[in-house]
Amino acid sequence: MPWAKEEDFLDLKGRFKSLEIEVKPTITNLHVSKNELIELLKTLKEEKGYKLFIDHSVVDFPEKSPRFQAFYILYNVDERKRVVVKTWTDGTLPSIEKLWFAGKWAERECYDMFGIIYEGHENLVRAFMWETYQYHPLRKDFPLEGYANEYLPSLNEVLRGDNLQGLMNYDRMHTPVPTLEDLEITERKRLKKKAQLVLNWGPLHPGTHGTMWFLFDLEGERVVQCDVILGQLHRGVEKLAENEMYNQFLVYTDRMDYISALCSNQAWVVAVERLLGIEDLVPEKAKYIRTMMSELQRINSHLLWLGTYALDIGALTIFLYAFKEREKLMDIIEGITGARLTISYPRIGGVRMDLPEGALEVIKAFIKRFPKELKDWETILSRNRIWLRRNVGVGVISKEDVYFYGLTGAVARGSGIPYDIRKFEPYDAYPWVEFDIPVGENGDVYDRYLVRLEEMRQSIRIIEQCVRKLESMPKSAPFFAESPDPKKLKLSLDGIGLKVPEGEIYSSGENPRGELGFYIYSTGGVKPYRVKIRPGSMYNLCVYPKLMKDRVIADAVAVLASLDPVVGEIDR
Amino acid sequence: MEGLLVQLIIIGIKILFILAIVLGLGAYLTLVERKVAAHIQRRPGPMVVGWHGLLQPLADGLKLITKEDIFPRYGNRFLYNLALVLALVPAVLVFAVVPFGPEFEIFGIKIKPILTDVNVGLLLVFALGSMAVYAIALAGWASNSKYALIGSMRKAGIIVSYEVVITFAVMGPIILAGTLSTYEIVQRQIDQKLWYIWLQPIAFVIYMFALLAEAGRVPFDIQEAEAELVTGFTVEYGGIKFGLFPLVEWYVEVLSLSAIGVVLFLGGWSPINIPFVGFVDPLFFLGPLSPFVWFALKVGLLFLFVLWLHWTLPRYRIDQITETAWKVMLPLTFVNLVLTAIIAPIVWR
Which residues of A touch B227 (CB under 8 A)? Predict the structure, then answer.
């Protein structure tokens, strides 16, 4: 476990009177009072090397006073240590936007979801909901069905009057939905017009890869400033998590980053297993299967990225080449798991079912021919002069920016920081397989492209090793964990009755789009008390307005595609 | 009087012939493009309507014609429609000076297969080519859409830069031929037993670049750049009006510029050329039809080359395109022009 030790912070005890260090096997907490928070974070960042911002949010305890417990998760990349800083508040917190820009976005989200006011925040606007929305949905006293106070009759009711019978006769009072005026107010709040024209890029635009809404303030074609309006795909996954059992929440992880469902599943399952302390009980076969499947999914996801990225830059043909191979992968995944997009194949304690007959042969055939295809595409793109001119030197992210903006995944690696959870905090079969982490040099769009291509090759390497290992295992090897004491810990495929002891954990997996982390706060029982999801895409996207400054619109697609966000994960 | 009537009838037939060829071919080139693209992308392409999708262009046309004609609110309806006319007419008019073959005799009447052999034919071609700017600028402006406006500004920027380049690029062949008449240029190449591509390779390459830019083909298709601007200046057009713009831009213009390119550099209707020695005609068995087939073959090859590029390359950025035009291509054409102007009179006559 990569958590910081108590002795790392003993020297800070003298400087911070309220500092308390709490070390648990699943987490290391630094409790500090609110007025010393910023000072402690600054010390951690500048003196202790905890430079990478991972996540920030709060946990709501309505019956306690002060009511909210805020946590800040930080990472030390050089020493591979993670630490959580915690403080209590009743509704206001100092803003950390000077320390980490990513904190700014996290704070917006907290303001939106919990109503925390951040002192010193430059532009405190709602992250996902529209500006005129009055409630804070993640507070514990917000009812799951929302407040039904808006009169919204259905079309049938408008046309036919009150004569509707039975199920057709819905309640006409609904939770508020944004109107056009609401959206206009939201839009105005984002951007103070500085230049010639404001271009609404999205929410429905082929270049935004989803329902993202960008506002470009343009001087000719040059972007003077840029802002993002999120929330078109917000479904309240974190609220749902608090009201679902651990295994039931698995299906929502599919729907977050829907392009890499298996990786998200794996990250969630591993997080819960670690919280339960049964990581070692999971049979080897299940671990290898999970690793192999999520690497297949990684290739699948990177293929979608490559296709759409090339399409954005105008190379239409690569799109179809990539999708052809992706289709084969989808067929393999469908054959093994029964689903193509939302897969839910792993389970807490193993996988749902054993590999079917012949699955390994199909995978072997795929990994044999896939590198050749990859080489073909590289021949078309990598040394192409137009490709180079569109990519090299565009959207440069420096190493400092990676920490400042909390970037992870291929984006961080493209800038030369070998931050890969698979190596830093290995889960499942990753400690037993051999692979390299490709890193870039300049941190531009082209480096990120090369890093992702190389990652596909490394994934092939991992799959090869997994297949070899799985072939050598007997057919009857178990694929699901056996509970040591079924009375205390009930492990089953459907996961009903799985009680998780009190505790908290932050655990993350390396998704194709960056680190997908789950902060789980459990007060015991079958449901988590609070789940904070750390979306890699969202923090990767927060560097976008900075990268787009003084670039032209044509670069907007290249830079955005190289960050590779998926809106399902950003908005949750 | 009788002579005039015959002349008028002949001209009428020529006009009908050219219109039928250009517009009919333009429509069918969509099928060619889709098939070529499909095979480059390892898929069959249109297969359902007719044998191997042969009736697909008709189905597409029918669909586009029967679609609702939508007009954007607060747009300028007059300019909106005028843009269409301004796009279509000059592009088709260019074919008035394209020579399809040598003079032939039928029923005792000598016919040149060119609509009007004006002595400033090339000048006319480039004058008409510049007219395209108006169509695009108007289309972008009248649509009342920011995307359309940005798209049209990009395209106007490209056309303005590449009109200059293309004009200087064709100066070389003009000096060699000593005439501006398209028919005469081909005739000179046949007389001198030389395609001008052998003496003007730089001009030819630059001409091809400019062709791609003017016709909005990859790698210069930024005016439509679907990932950035959806479809650029045509974004507010619907139905057949939307269909006409790509038809004009991608097919009629490519066709006309390829034809002019063949006339200038590839010896028009002449068969394969061995420089300074003569011509080899493997299609001699076609008799008098052979020159026409050669002409169509060359234009077709250039068109396929354009398609091949279109479905392989990524696209440039607007600043890179104009930079290339002004900083690289224009100086190159100047060098070419000066060298040709100095050397040609010494060696040529």
Answer: 206-207, 311-314, 557
